[in-house]
Design a protein that fits this description.
Blueprint lengths: L2 E2 L3 H13 L5 E7 L9 H7 L4 E6 L6 H11 L4 E5 L5 H5 L1 H12 L6 E7 L5 H9 L17 E6 L2 E5 L7 E2 L2 H10 L9 H15 L1 H7 L9 H11 L11 H13 L11 H36 L1
Parallel strand pairs: 2-3, 2-5, 3-4, 5-7
Antiparallel strand pairs: 1-8, 6-7
């Protein structure tokens, strides 16, 4: 299922980002530590080129510690550095400024003042990060996508300027798995996808990878071999009952998603660096097949027109 969700302010934000990038020294890309791959915006890679980039994995307190370390190791390169933070861990946030300064020096860019552009998809914790860096509330926050609607410049000191940009999704999510993960974490509005489908997809991953956490949270007798049955059992145990005494799957799904997003199921990460490589290859193959079919249809139409002449 390809997700398409590109409100007008996002289209405008993309154009504005492209215009101001030449005057930007470092890009801070804010990612959700639970879905580092799916919360990366492929448009940013095209726009930034070799511009230094700091990947900040937020909500690290909700993510699997071992997998967060694996992602940090996978990201670090000549032009890219990474750090994982939690909004409750002020010590990790204090490390961001010194890290950015080393990246500016390495890029031999101007430093008076130097400009840091903060980008990220909706509901990833971008505004929360900015408020913590500034030390006061300057960016509007909220537990729903698309809170920031326009760019704003924030002066941290004589040598620092932050550019806060609206959360920008790309026009089309070609990887179905990423679409479900974005929905599961709340990056996409709940109305964009069916909650029961998202919840069963989530359970398809959680049941084999985090069975102990599910059993501890819900019931020691959950049928973890099948996601629909698991969701039904969760709904029954939590009183999500509809007409005829049957489980209301939508209510059960919304309950599961709410508790997952709040970290009440435990520290969980929904993807690995290896999954990113495999899924990118799969998407590339699928897009190539689609392009080939389009070309074949185009050639067939040309041939048909020639035969009519």
């Amino acid at each position: 299922m390809a997700i398409q969700w590109f409100p007008g302010h996002m289209h405008k934000a993309r154009k504005e980002m492209a215009m101001v990038l030449p005057d930007t020294d470092v890009i801070v890309e804010v990612l959700d530590a639970r879905i580092p791959f799916s919360s990366e915006n492929p448009m940013l890679e095209q726009l930034r080129g070799t511009k230094p980039c700091l990947k900040v994995l937020t909500k690290a307190d909700l993510a699997d510690v071992k997998l967060t370390d694996a992602w940090l190791n996978a990201y670090d390169s000549k032009t890219t550095k990474s750090i994982a933070i939690s909004s409750h861990d002020k010590e990790s946030i204090k490390k961001i400024r010194p890290l950015l300064k080393t990246m500016v020096t390495a890029s031999q860019s101007r430093v008076n003042p130097f400009v840091v552009m903060v980008v990220g998809i909706p509901n990833v914790g971008k505004s929360t990060l900015i408020n913590l860096l500034v030390g006061k509330t300057v960016a509007k926050t909220g537990n729903e996508p698309a809170i920031t609607k326009r760019q704003q410049h924030i002066v941290l000191s004589d040598n620092w300027v932050l550019r806060d940009t609206p959360g920008v999704l790309w026009p089309k999510v070609d990887n179905p798995a990423s679409g479900y993960r974005l929905a599961a974490t709340g990056a996409i509005r709940d109305t964009a996808m069916d909650s029961a489908e998202v919840a069963t997809y989530l359970l398809d991953y959680l049941c084999p990878n985090y069975p102990a956490e599910l059993l501890q949270r819900y019931d020691l007798n959950l049928p973890l071999t099948e996601s629909v049955a698991t969701l039904e059992a969760i709904g029954a145990s939590r009183g999500c009952i509809g007409g005829g005494g049957l489980v209301d799957f939508d209510r059960a799904a919304r309950l599961l998603l709410t508790e997952f997003r709040a970290g009440q199921l435990g520290r969980m990460t929904l993807e690995t660096p290896e999954m990113k490589v495999a899924e990118l290859k799969s998407v590339e193959k699928k897009l190539a097949e689609i392009a080939l079919k389009k070309e074949e249809k185009k050639n067939a139409r040309k041939k048909a027109r020639k035969q009519k002449r």
